[in-house]
């Protein structure tokens, strides 16, 4: 299996480069990553924006990058790696990374690779700062799509020093709640709580500040992992 996926990735990546990085005509992966991280100079940032407005190919790749799950492998663009693994029938669970800060009755989004629900609009966390957004009263809702699943993570600020977190999984296309999933809370590798979401969602209450991992699994294995860090 390892040789198969390596061969497939090499072939697909070669085709991807020929379409998207042909003789410098398009943005490369490094430029896109620097643009999203805000590491470009003002002049280069404007050039990238202008290119994205007029280039459908690069805009499409950038859009996929914003939704790509965190696999911890920077050798290939995440959407490409995911597609290769899916083509070989390898389960690729969605990973939602969330970093928050609690203050009295305020939740601040420091970092996330999901989309933040602002009113009725889903906004990629990477552009919240450009809109001068980041603070949310009492609760923040973050959604992450992958394959046929949409994972909704709601974090409610209770006292500024503890919080509740609710996990809900839906079928991305049918919008129906996916039930009978096992949702498990870990801290420092130790299992703290585990529930079956027979009612559609699971809530962990009065969690203290710190780093947590939440796994969502069905009978066949892990479907989603939430990496959550909450600080003052």
Classified by CATH, the class of the largest domain is: Mainly Beta
Please give the number of β-strands.
Answer: 13
Main sheet: strand order: 5-2-1-13-12-9-10
Which regions contain 5 or more consecutive residues with pLDDT less than 50?
A: 19-23, 67-76
Strand fraction band?
Answer: 35-45%
Q: How many helices in DSSP terms?
A: 5
Textual characterization of the structure:
The chain is an alpha+beta fold. It has 2 domains: 2-87, no CATH class; 94-231, Immunoglobulin-like, CATH 2.60.40. The chain is 27% helix and 41% strand. A hairpin with a 2-residue loop joins strand 1 and strand 2 (106-112). Helix 3 packs across helix 4 (56-67). The longest helix has 19 residues, at 2-20.
Give a quick summary of the entry.
The protein is an alpha+beta fold.
List keywords for this structure.
232 residues, alpha+beta, Immunoglobulin-like, seven-stranded mixed sheet, 5 helices
Architecture blueprint of SSEs:
Blueprint: H1 2-20, H2 29-37, H3 42-54, H4 56-67, H5 78-87, E1 94-103, E2 106-112, E3 115-118, E4 121-124, E5 135-137, E6 139-146, E7 149-157, E8 162-171, E9 182-187, E10 190-196, E11 201-208, E12 210-218, E13 221-231
Parallel strand pairs: 1-13
Antiparallel strand pairs: 1-2, 2-5, 3-4, 3-6, 6-7, 7-8, 8-11, 9-10, 9-12, 12-13
């Amino acid at each position: 299996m390892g040789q198969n996926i390596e061969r497939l990735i090499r072939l697909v990546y070669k085709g991807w480069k020929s379409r998207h990085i042909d003789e410098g005509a398009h943005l490369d992966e490094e430029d896109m990553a620097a643009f999203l991280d805000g590491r470009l100079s003002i002049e280069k940032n404007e050039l990238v924006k202008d290119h994205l407005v007029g280039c459908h190919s690069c805009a499409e790749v950038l859009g996929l990058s914003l939704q790509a799950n965190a696999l911890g492998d920077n050798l290939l663009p995440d959407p490409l790696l995911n597609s290769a693994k899916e083509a070989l029938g390898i389960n690729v669970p969605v990973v939602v990374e969330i970093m928050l800060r609690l203050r009295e009755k305020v939740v601040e989004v420091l970092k996330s690779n999901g989309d933040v629900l602002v009113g009725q609009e889903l906004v990629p966390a990477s552009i919240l700062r450009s809109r001068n957004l980041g603070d949310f009263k009492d609760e923040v809702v973050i959604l992450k799509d992958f394959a046929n699943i949409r994972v909704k993570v709601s974090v409610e600020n209770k006292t500024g020093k503890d919080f509740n977190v609710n996990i809900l999984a839906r079928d991305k296309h049918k919008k129906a709640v996916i039930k009978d999933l096992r949702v498990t809370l870990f801290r420092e590798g130790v299992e703290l709580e585990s529930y079956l979401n027979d009612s559609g969602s699971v809530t962990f209450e009065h969690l203290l500040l710190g780093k947590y991992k939440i796994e969502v699994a069905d009978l066949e294995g892990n479907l989603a992992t939430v990496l959550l860090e909450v600080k003052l």
